[in-house]
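Hi all, long-time lurker, first post. I run a small reading group and we've been trying to get comfortable going from sequence to structure in the token notation. Rather than ask abstract questions, I figured I'd post a concrete chain and ask someone more experienced to write out its structure so we can walk through it together at our next meeting. Sequence below, copied exactly:
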Amino acid sequence: MAADSSLTGHLQAPAVNGTLEPTVALQRLLAGSGLSYQHAGNTLIITRDDLGSSLQLDATSITGTGLGDTTDGTGSYTTGSTSTATKLPLTLRETPQSVSVISRQRLDDQNLTQLTDAVRQAPGLSLHQGGNSGSDSSPIYSRGFEVENYQIDGVQLLNSSYASIFQSSDLAIYDRIEVIRGATGLTNGVGTPGATINLVRKRPTSEWKSSIGLKAGSWDNNSIELDSGGPLNESGTVRARMVAAYRDAGSHIDRLNERHKVLYGIVEADLTPDTLLTVGADVQHHDANNHARLGLPLFYSDGSRTDWSRSDSAATAWGYSERHYTNGFASLEHQLNENWKAMATFNRGRYDYDEVIGHASAWAFPDRQTGTGGQTYGGRWAAKPVQDSLDLNLSGAFEAFGQRHDLIIGHARQQTHYKADNYRLWYMGSIPSYYGWDGKTPAKPDFEVTGRTDYNERQESTYGSVRLRATDKLSLILGGRVTDWQSVQKTDNYGSDDEVSRRQETGVFTPFAGLVYDLDDTWSVYTSYTSIFKPQNRRTASGAFIDPLEGKGYEAGIKAGFFEDRLNFSTAIYQIEQDNLAVAIDGQTAPNGDQAYRAESGTKTRGFEVELTGELLPNWQLSTSFSRNIVQDSDGRALNTNIPQNTAKLFTSYLLENIGNGLTLGGGVNWQNAAYTDGSGPNGVRFTQDSYAVVDLMARYPITEQLSATFNVNNLLDKEYYTGTSTAYYGTPRNATLGLRLTF
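-- Answer (accepted) --
Happy to help. Here is the structure in token form:
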């Protein structure tokens, strides 16, 4: 390989390890370098994007500009590869499951600052927002089921109760968000069939790049962000990156104010040419005053519908939420030889939360004339759980029967524990009248300490996955995971009997099988099978835990990768069969005050999805999708009717090069069909949220080579709608944000 030192002499390429396809290896080699590649005749041309300079190398059959797994700086709405579904580094077309990616460019274009913002744009996902950001009453759904599987850099978060913390996390530190729809027992061990959300952090760059961003938006929603990284020594063997952001977020809801703080740092060091050490940490703070877990009542006591202003708050003046997350991580990767590498990853996360709950009851229906009859719920919970995660794996390639195959085997361990005071929950108070209520009445309760809980949860798994190439076009992916899981909860109840809850599952095997056949260099067909197993924290009306969720998932589809996978198409049909599905019982609570559930067996979910994401033409990025799901019990009755069966999402942007320095215009629309819940009003009356669509616009203009301005308008038509079907919690009205970014 020949190289022109004027282009490459000042650059440090990242380490490229393992046995990779030539295009994938080259994509990783050039990631973040400002260089791209093209194929002309028998020559491979390496071009620097900003200058148009080039050098020529001996060629193989590579065409176009490819993408690696990193999306930051690519300008693309898609990615070149992902390993979240199978732990093998595969392109989206090679992965026999439905995978979607929200890239860094997409996050920036649409001003998506926290996970709930991104979920609204992700194919196949629905957000049932019941309260303010960061509350635990805003579940995310996929394929009709709640999403409880979360990962950071592919490392599983053991306890799904942390989901609400990550929903409010600032996305400034992430390169992309990967969503794998369907069960992922191979990578998670235990989990639900909805989806897995993997947040992938930004990595150090091979040359120094820095930026400062300022934003000002509606309702005094203001933020500042700093992102800087590059090599720390002349040889480039030590690289670092730091991201810091602060956002003071006002709201269209009266009295609500949120503050987001994030600090992230990472260092990569090439200890030897074959050994890479990575260490880092991030801290996330989300604090909110006048915070409510629910919205206002949907009905008056006479059964007629309420019609609150979108600014009316369900929060008391003394309710607040403090959710802090600190994570330290380290990994050591060693290339054993040209085919095999070993990797060890460790994470420690501390989830510090303190929440004083104070909000109106959505089921205490007020008098239409006087506004009286309302009630508040009050409570408090606080804890500082710590979770440790360790993953050891060996991956590589081997040859057999004239083909090259890929393999990964590993062992993972996660453990979480905490000791925390228990507070009396669900203090009931009276609201004098909703009309003119300022949240100060009733007064804040004392929140008596009623006991103390000691909780421990542990999961240990051994896993393996292999891609066998039967022919050049046919690949069989097989995998399995054997998991031991246990939890012990000891509760010291002051003034009553103590409680001990022990649950354990041993030797649970979750298999995976997938088949991919390449029709040609662009199109492929696939089918896959996954198993489902999930111990549940949901309780029956008697207080007993519901038995573990068990089931199977089947999927088949067609995928295509155009223009060296810069544009990805996929369509899939699926069926999910489950036993012990937890179904909420309207109007009933468990002895501890939580929602009561019943176990439903023989449930089936069927649906299909279509997605097209990436570069449709030069300068034209697109992401569009349609999803449909139907969830039924064993008798064919509809379940989870509060989730829309049909969703359609579109966002696109286009760079107009001939307008000044280049104007980028973008826009999108999200649509969902009607959803309903029985029992939202007096006498079990049904509430239906009709179908609706929300339109967004954006524009970006580079004022100079270093300074650019971005303008976003969300909910352009000011559509009025509810984000759930149980309480009157409105979607955000029309709002705008102006951002400036200086790069240097």
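A couple of things your group might point at:
The first strand starts at residue 35 and ends at 40.
Residues 67-743 form a domain with the Maltoporin; Chain A fold (CATH 2.40.170.20).
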